[in-house]
Design brief:
mainly alpha
């Protein structure tokens, strides 16, 4: 099955239209992934009767912890994305094939390990977040069911990284569209048909992720490209894994610590009661639609820069970053405008309580006010990762995001224990991080350094020939 026509040629021709063709499927993919959680919360909020607010709060209490685990491994999968993109630029089929088989094997093993740990520590993890007693049993139940699906959830994300690195973002979108519809249908079947609560929506999420990962696995088995998957080659090549982890671990730790800071914030939110928990959970599941739009341009930047850096086209790397920033601003503004215009109506899908809706809208207003800073540091981070620079953006993001948010919760929040005060931690942390990353970019100048290194290698080669 020849899939080369589906690949985006990132090394030649105009960039602006190709960046859009790459980023928009990623944005839709991210939104569909978020619809998994949104569907969970909406269904339990609307169809579990008097338990609706408790069930919403239980799913919401899980969000930061699950995000921590997923972000860690999704960050590591960025290493796969970069290694494959660089290898495509160098036309190194052997490296691509090793990266595919190593990534798939690593995802499955990592998923099993995380699943076992999650099952053992489920209740202890929920207790560390100050989850109210009335919410705790449901929160633990949702977490335990969700953890059973970690092998296929991680598998899907690493498979997606493979396709992104190859320049084929639409393939994961196809798989996710099918599984997304299945997820919504199963949510309704389990909750309405079988009278389940949070365990029903968690089972639906696990099954739908199983389907999406199986579809991508099938595509990798059938492709005739360098990314072709073969059962007999499923093993870890430790040299390749080392390269993946060198880029992926800093990105994964950055995402995990980012999520840890949000757990600290979630703990403060939990202290304000069930209504605030439900409102924040609903708003989070709305706001991230806009985040996935801007994040798609960060991922596009990483892949375009990765391939062109591998091919030695350094000026094209810089143009890609500029266009990702510009197009990201436009797409993000449109997404935020649409969400704010229909924000009350969207929030009411999750819960009809007017207090929940108004409190959730406060979160949307505060966080969206700082999304320009989010886009800035995301695209700059993506640009540096394309060059294989992963530790510095990860470290600066951890300091800027986590340092500010944790300090805010422990030093500022106690003086004014309100939801609005908690939310102000977001714009402060995002603006500080954007400044850090822009200064780092100006100091590191990765394209200029790569050009100087290339010139030095050429000069040495000429001397050796003479």
């Amino acid at each position: 099955m020849d899939q080369t026509k589906r690949e985006i040629n990132m090394l030649e021709g105009s960039l602006w239209d190709k960046i859009l063709r790459f980023a928009l499927p990623l944005a839709v993919t991210g939104i569909l992934q978020q619809l998994f959680n949104a569907a969970d919360i909406a269904v339990v909020g609307q169809f579990t009767g008097e338990k609706g607010a408790l069930a919403m709060a239980a799913v919401g209490a899980n969000t930061p912890v699950i995000s921590l685990v997923l972000n860690l491994f999704i960050g590591v999968s960025l290493g796969t994305n970069v290694i494959i993109a660089n290898s495509v630029g160098r036309r190194d089929s052997s490296s691509i094939n090793k990266a595919v088989h190593t990534s798939i094997t690593f995802a499955l093993i990592g998923g099993v390990v995380i699943s076992i740990i999650g099952e053992i520590l489920a209740k202890a993890i929920m207790l560390t977040q100050n989850v109210p007693d009335e919410v705790l049993p449901m929160a633990v139940l949702y977490f335990r069911v969700y953890m059973t699906g970690m092998p296929v959830i991680l598998l899907y994300n690493f498979e997606s990284a493979v396709f992104r690195g190859m320049g084929k973002p639409k393939t994961p979108l196809i798989a996710l569209f099918i599984s997304g519809i299945l997820n919504v249908v199963l949510n309704l079947v389990f909750v309405i048909g079988f009278h389940r609560t949070v365990d029903g929506v968690a089972m639906a999420t696990v099954i739908s992720n199983l389907v999406s990962s199986a579809i991508l696995f099938f595509f990798l088995l059938r492709t005739d490209s360098a990314a072709k998957l073969q059962w007999r080659k499923l093993r870890i090549d430790f040299g390749t894994l080392s390269r993946i982890l060198r880029i992926g671990i800093p990105a994964g730790v950055q995402s995990a610590v980012f999520a840890f800071a949000n757990i600290i914030i979630q703990t403060a939110i939990n202290s304000l009661g069930t209504i605030v928990m439900a409102a924040s959970s609903a708003a989070y599941n709305v706001e991230v639609f806009a985040y996935y739009v801007l994040n798609s341009f960060s991922q596009a930047c990483t892949t375009f820069v990765g391939q062109n850096y591998g091919a030695g086209k350094l000026q094209r790397c810089k143009r890609a970053m500029g266009l990702c920033m510009l197009e990201g601003i436009i797409a993000m503004a449109l997404a935020i405008a649409a969400i704010l215009i229909f924000g009350h109506q969207i929030l009411s899908i999750f819960n009809g309580d007017q207090k929940v809706i108004e409190t959730g809208y406060i979160r949307l207003l505060v966080i969206f006010s700082a999304y320009i800073f989010t886009l800035s540091y995301e695209v700059v981070s993506g640009y540096m990762r394309g060059f294989g620079i992963s530790f510095i953006p990860a470290f600066l993001t951890m300091v800027g995001i986590c340092g500010v948010r944790i300090t805010w919760i422990y030093m500022v929040f106690p003086k004014d224990r309100t939801f609005s005060n908690i939310m102000m931690a977001y714009p402060f942390s995002l603006s500080v991080t954007a400044v850090f990353l822009i200064v780092a970019l100006l100091c590191l100048r990765p394209a200029a350094r790569a050009s100087a290194k290339s010139d030095m290698v050429s000069q040495l080669g000429e001397k050796s020939l003479s």
